[in-house]
Design goal:
It contains three helices and six strands; from the N terminus they run H-E-E-H-E-E-E-E-H. By secondary structure, the protein is of the alpha/beta class. A six-stranded mixed β-sheet has the order 1-6-5-4-2-3. Helix 2 links the parallel strand 2 and strand 3.
Length: about 160
């Protein structure tokens, strides 16, 4: 029991984050030809209230990184989008939260042939992170993690679409 409390305390103080990657070696293939996209941020859970996390700030963080990399970001009229989902759950003890951050790229398109073709979205790129963090560091840790995942996406997007 004492060891578990020590581990959890250490994890909270350090803002322990575990990055989870579920990509194949050709993860960039689905990003080819993408020059314009939009950003969609899922609503934050009610457990985020009072933690300093702000949906609009997260949206701005992702959009700003994309624009700095010279990726065109539009609010509407684009079917392909970067999707951000942040989930947090407050532990039953102290001001400790379990955090899950997922950044994915959803590409819209026609699937099928002829009259059987349907328009649908496919997730062609996705990365995420899991962690345990104290309330004092929650907002900063989540924003830093969103920034890291955004940078990874931008690197793959730019590699899939080299300038000639």
């Amino acid at each position: 029991m004492r060891l578990r409390v020590l581990f959890i305390s250490s994890a909270v103080l350090l803002g322990l984050t575990l990055t989870v990657n579920a990509q194949s070696s050709d993860r960039r293939d689905g990003l080819r030809g993408i020059t314009t996209l939009r950003v969609v941020v899922e609503s934050l859970p009610t457990s985020a209230e009072g933690t300093g996390l702000d949906l609009q700030q997260l949206q701005t963080d992702v959009e700003l990184r994309l624009r700095k990399a010279r990726v065109t970001v539009l609010d509407k009229g684009v079917w392909s989008y970067v999707y951000l989902n942040v989930n947090i759950v407050k532990a039953s003890f102290g001001d400790v939260y379990a955090v899950s951050v997922e950044l994915a790229f959803q590409r819209g398109g026609l699937f099928g042939v002829g009259k059987d073709a349907v328009f649908a979205f496919a997730s062609v790129w996705s990365k995420g992170a899991l962690g345990i963090v104290g309330k004092q560091n929650l907002s900063t840790t989540v924003r830093d993690t969103v920034g890291d995942l955004s940078d990874q996406f931008i690197n793959d997007l730019l590699a899939a679409n080299p300038k000639s």
